[in-house]
Amino acid sequence: MIDRNLSHWYPEIEKQARSFFSYCLDFFFPPRCVYCHTMGNRICAVCASVIPWIDSNHCRFCGLPQAEIRSHHCIDRARIQFVRSAAVFSGPIRKALHALKYDSDRSLAAQLVSLSHPHWALPTWDFDALLPVPLGRDRERARGYNQSLLLANALSRLVPIPVAAGCLSRVRETQTQVGLSFGARQQNMANAFQASAVEGKRVLLVDDVCTTGATLQSCAEALVHAGARGVGALTLARAVLPASRLGT
Q1: How far is it, in rounded angstroms, from Cα 57 to Cα 37?
Q2: CATH top-level class of 53-245
Q3: N or C end of the chain: smaller count of CB under 10 Å?
Q4: What per-residue confidence (pLDDT) applies to 34?
């Protein structure tokens, strides 16, 4: 019979076993950069250095890079306090996010968050919970996972904020946002989410890409309706719509 007094060692044993298994995989199948295919890391140092990071020169509310701010549609600050994106959705980070979302390359989540963390540069991490943006049931079943949950879990290991995925759910299926104008995106995401167990809490939404903020604002509306004290949002990347699709 196994000595129950040894039970406190189980998590450490499991951690060591996983580490050894990962070492073996890397030894026999060395990781390659998702962008340039150089051996070493899933995103090599050279490719990480050319990612167009968004640091200080951005809209302080919606996070849009200053170079893109003309007559931009900013966020509704009655629902969401801020959106911060780490990089422009192009080059290596675009390739990596496509691999994470569509090629089941889940191993990229941790490195993407680790690279992005310094560039979010929040003045405070004083939040009660990280909330990954939920996928539609059909889309998550087809993909097999929610990439936003992978990103939230990776971020939770860097900052002392727990993940509370069950507090936010998608209550209706929506069509893909790809190709939609600003107005169509807002309409598509209206009343798509429901929140619970967030009363009096400050929460931080986590998603992969922000384009117009329609999805994040719809999530925030549900959270505020459920009593959240404050809502912010982080995304790895910020996509920019061409002028022809900015109209309502």
Answers
A1: 31
A2: alpha beta
A3: N
A4: 95
With H, G, I as helix, E, B as strand and everything else as coil, classify residue 220. helix
Q: Which residues of 216-232 are buried (b: 16+ CB within 10 A; e: fewer)?
A: bbbbbbbbbebebebbb
Residue 21 tokens, joined? 């298994």
Cα→Cα distances 206→72, 85, 192, Å: 22, 10, 17
**117 within 8 A of 156, measured Cβ to Cβ:** no
pLDDT digits (tens, 9 = 90+) for 6-29: 445 555 555 455 445 444 555 556
| Cβ density class 39-53: b for 16+ within 10 Å, e for less | eeebbbeebbeebbb
- Classified as helix, coil or strand, 168 is strand
Q: Which of 232, 226, 239 is nearest to 133 (CA)?
A: 232
Q: How are beta strands 202-210 and 129-132 bridged, if at all?
A: parallel
Distant-in-sequence, close-in-space partners of 144: CB < 8 Å, separation ≥ 6: 104
Helices and strands (DSSP H and E) totals, the chain: 8, 6
pTM above 0.70, yes or no: yes
